[in-house]
């Protein structure tokens, strides 16, 4: 009968340890949404950054040890920061999730289209959209940018 309280105490300590380990793992994870960026301050003098999968996240070093983490694709990867001697300063997981805005997805057979509905639905190019929809939306965005920069021919006097 005396073993029961001891076993319960050991079980409680193991659960507490598991909880602390999970909390530490979460604090080492950088979470970012696809098509979003996040600023992270690193300690030490970072000289080199290595990203496990550049299709999932892009990481760039800024002055003062700041890095910009940009979500490019869904999934998980990691970033390793090293100093000039090649010593590892940081090895953190990057988790890239779905967009934070309200997305409506329309399927037309096998083709998929995404719309951001905040509050009015507008085209939103998202990974996984059909090629035709994706190209059309990107071409329109490119044309709009060109017009805004004054590079287009519409609106000019003849």
Quick take:
With about 160 residues, the chain is an alpha+beta fold.
From the N-terminal CA to the C-terminal CA, the straight-line distance is: 98 Å
CATH architecture of the largest domain: Sandwich
Number of strands: 10
The helix content, as a percent range, equals 25-40%
How many separate domains make up the residues?
A: 2
Which class best fits the helix and strand makeup? alpha+beta
Broad shape: elongated
Low-confidence regions: 6-26
Strand order of the largest sheet: 1-7-6-3
User: Which percent band covers the strand fraction?
Assistant: 35-45%
Mean pLDDT: 82
Task: Describe the sheet with the most strands.
Answer: 4 strands, mixed
Tally of helical segments: 2
What is CATH's topology name of the largest domain? Immunoglobulin-like
CATH class category of the largest domain: Mainly Beta
* Strand/helix succession: HEEEEEEEEEEH
* Rounded radius of gyration (Å): 23 Å
Task: Give an overview in words.
The structure is a single chain. The protein is of the alpha+beta class and 158 residues long. It folds into 2 domains: 71 residues, Immunoglobulin-like; 46 residues, no CATH class. The protein is built from 2 helices and 10 strands.
Give a quick set of tags describing it:
158 residues, alpha+beta, Immunoglobulin-like, three-stranded antiparallel β-sheet, 2 helices, 27% helix, elongated
Helix and strand layout, with pairings?
Blueprint: H1 3-27, E1 29-33, E2 37-41, E3 48-51, E4 57-61, E5 66-71, E6 75-82, E7 88-97, E8 103-108, E9 111-117, E10 121-123, H2 131-148
Parallel strand pairs: 1-7
Antiparallel strand pairs: 2-5, 3-6, 4-5, 6-7, 8-9, 9-10
């Amino acid at each position: 009968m005396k073993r029961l309280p001891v076993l319960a105490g050991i079980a409680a300590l193991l659960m507490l340890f598991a909880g602390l380990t999970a909390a530490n793992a979460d604090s080492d994870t950088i979470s970012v949404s696809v098509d979003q960026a996040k600023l992270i301050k690193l300690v030490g003098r970072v000289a080199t950054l290595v990203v496990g999968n550049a299709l999932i996240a892009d990481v760039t070093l800024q002055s003062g040890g700041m890095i910009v983490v940009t979500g490019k694709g869904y999934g998980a990867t990691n970033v390793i920061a090293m100093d000039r001697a090649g010593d590892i300063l940081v090895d953190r997981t990057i988790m890239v999730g779905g967009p934070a805005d309200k997305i409506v997805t329309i399927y037309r057979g096998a083709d998929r289209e995404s719309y951001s509905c905040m509050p009015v639905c507008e085209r939103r190019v998202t990974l996984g959209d059909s090629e035709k929809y994706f190209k059309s939306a990107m071409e329109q965005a490119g044309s709009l940018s060109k017009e805004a920069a004054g590079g287009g021919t519409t609106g000019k006097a003849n």
